[in-house]
């Protein structure tokens, strides 16, 4: 039997840190040549990886890829004045993602449109010029470009502001935030993301005088391919395969998000290559373009009997970024002990760690479909002071964090073949503790389903470690199986979650309005569909989904509207 110490001796967090340093040198837009260069670094680091390519002009499981985009260079300056952005090849995050190329050097007048999210904001705008806006980039695009024929957007927009960790415009005045046009823009547009200081300077200038800019931006389609790098090691057995995923895309530097996950995955797979003769299962490493790459992968042959561990933003120096490692379990609809096992292996007093409710937002979520039945968990440091910004650099990463998380993932894989009595007892304890946190004495439906989940988790765990039969029977006897559907129903036509590729501007406004009050609303809709597909009634699915995410608001009308729109778009069965 392989010794865990030998695995840990082979693992090097310094290797992962150096890979982060290399990968973060590239502007990793989907379909770009720099994405391919970053992928080549990982591919050259491994022994037996395979490149899968998928055309970006197709839809995969409802996920219509954004246009392939390859930034080549450019600049932005005041007319006959100083540079605002001197060289996009050096600071590519200053270009709004999916910008079109300019017609040579364009001279434009700038108009301050405030947020730029309503028609009223454009009452003084003259078509064919540039707008200065700090609103939601999708809404700004809709009004500025589609309705009022602007040529250029100068944007300041910081997502996920958080005073508790110093993530505010005033505290990060020189930071450039990642900004993108919508994936399915249908009119010519280019633009620049400004720092808060640059934005404020322009705003003040516009109060006093007419401002002209000179803009040059060069971009093309790049490879026009979604690239998925895959490495398979181990052997085919009746044991569940382990799929380890990390998304490689994102703007330069993107060190923690997500060069860190991609680099750590590469080092984990390198270590496992050394010991693959001792593996009792297949292990697959996947480096993808976030969401879309996984959607394409799910159209290929892949293990249906599997566990998934997703690595996203796993390099943080928690002191510098203000982060806590969030362990996101698989949803209630796919009960599994995997999250509890991983949590046990992550418990360490030097780091902040939290066991979360289910949420989407990264590639684990693409597997969250009860018809697949693949438990998928995710590790993400959040919140992060430098998220999606020019300050997400390798100095914000920590070798110690990489060591902690990398060894926890390796030990989890090890435990699935060599679980000690001590580990199984700890996992069992976590399952039972989580059970009592979830039981709702006011709802027989919820309590019954929590009992059912706990029974299934303990039963699964018993195949790997010591779990008393009496304990399993104890929870089984608490279940009213009449309240558990015996047959699933087919609702969606695709594998995995339904994308938002079909949203029109009214759908976006509707979603944004609700998410201001209920931030987890998007997750709620996914969970609702999962529960509904298990065979519960629509009303029961709403109750269970709300309980799973801790939502109290009445959402019956919102669910009906969502189902109506899905039917209109022919994304679910018409009889639902």
Automatic annotation (TrEMBL):
One function term, GO molecular function aspect: metalloexopeptidase activity
Question: SUPFAM superfamilies, from UniProt?
Answer: Zn-dependent exopeptidases
Q: Where is the Peptidase M28 domain?
A: 234-412
CDD domains on file: M28_like
InterPro entries assigned: M28_fam, Peptidase_M28
Q: What is any one GO biological process for this UniProt entry?
A: proteolysis
Protein name per UniProt = Peptidase M28 domain-containing protein
